[in-house]
Amino acid sequence: MSTVWDIDAWVEEAAWSPIKRFYPTAVTKNVALPINLVFEHLLKLTEQGKLSLFWEIRCPSCFYTVIPNEDEEFNSGDLITCPLGHDFELMGENLFPVFEVNSEYRQYIRGKKKSPLQVMIRRKLVSAGL
Length: 130
Known about the structure:
Blueprint: H1 4-16, E1 21-22, H2 24-31, H3 35-47, E2 51-58, E3 65-66, E4 79-81, E5 87-89, E6 95-101, H4 103-112, H5 116-127
Antiparallel strand pairs: 1-6, 2-3, 2-6, 4-5
Helix pairs in contact: 2-3
């Protein structure tokens, strides 16, 4: 049975890997826990400084992701035009959470842990007597 520790392990593997950003649904599929539990735990990891939370805005007509400029701020009800020219009102169903592994945490994980591939290769070399 999966636990929140499986979420921690998944995030550690993501920190080791080239994954830049991920959706909570990716974690849910891999650890077989409910999305609400996964999301809450990812928020805790964000509070601990291991992750950062970003919000994607998606056009409901074409599902294109709208990337605001750094100085842009949107509020609920704002009218947004996607790059393909569709106008839509910003509402909760247009927002999608995306998490990113913080670079300091990534460096910490990479410094303390060997990759699963390195471990597998080492085991094969040892078992082959090399």
